[in-house]
Design a protein that fits this description.
There is one protein chain. By secondary structure, the chain is mainly beta. The protein has 3 helices and 9 strands, in the order ααβββββαββββ. The strands form 2 sheets. Strands 1, 2, 4, 7 and 9 form a 5-stranded antiparallel sheet that branches.
Length: about 180
């Protein structure tokens, strides 16, 4: 929650705003002013010394209110698998029948995705000593971001204390933590 630490981290990044969100010569300042970012960052890291891919969280969507998130791969690589939600297919007929698409993000790559409208999962390829990416939530409609709380609106919480080392549930048994979807 330190503003100074957040600012220092941003200065160490390759960019604060990815090039595709920065205004070009022909764009007005008014249009560029519509792009806002949350005052927080997501940092994802992991390693995979084995030869087989290491799966992350199973396919899911996120309960978000912003326009999407951009992810910059800073070290190693990560493979994303994306497919459109029914909501996105209804609003964009050209996406109907689209099969899942996998793409590998390598150092310097930036992925921009609305994780509410795209089902997604990630995996770290085999023999990856470190996969490190940073993500930032963005608003493309001029909305002023609220303070980030980095929690789901609804979630599951323990109702009692567990002894250290207890396994509450495994990834395969994880409860559905997403919000119900509107039709």
């Amino acid at each position: 929650r330190s503003r100074a630490a957040f600012t220092a981290f941003l200065k160490a990044m390759p960019f604060v705003v990815p090039p595709f969100l920065q205004p070009t010569c022909g764009e007005s300042k008014r249009v560029a002013a519509l792009v806002k970012h949350s005052a927080g960052l997501w940092i994802f890291f992991g390693r995979n010394p084995s030869g087989a891919a290491l799966a992350g969280r199973p396919e899911h969507t996120d309960a978000i209110e912003h326009s999407g998130t951009w992810h910059v791969q800073l070290q190693g690589s990560k493979v994303w698998t994306l497919r459109p939600t029914a909501e996105l297919q209804r609003s964009n007929r050209s996406l109907r029948g689209v099969r899942p698409v996998s793409l590998r993000c390598c150092v310097g790559d930036v992925l921009c995705v609305n994780t509410r409208l795209w089902w997604h999962r990630t995996r770290i390829p085999g023999r990856c000593p470190l996969s490190l990416s940073v993500a930032r939530d963005m608003y493309l409609d001029g909305t002023t971001p609220r303070a980030p709380d980095f929690t789901n609106v609804r979630g599951h919480y323990a109702t009692r204390a567990f002894p250290k080392g207890s396994v509450v549930f495994s990834a395969d048994e994880a409860p559905d933590l997403e919000l119900p979807r509107c039709r």
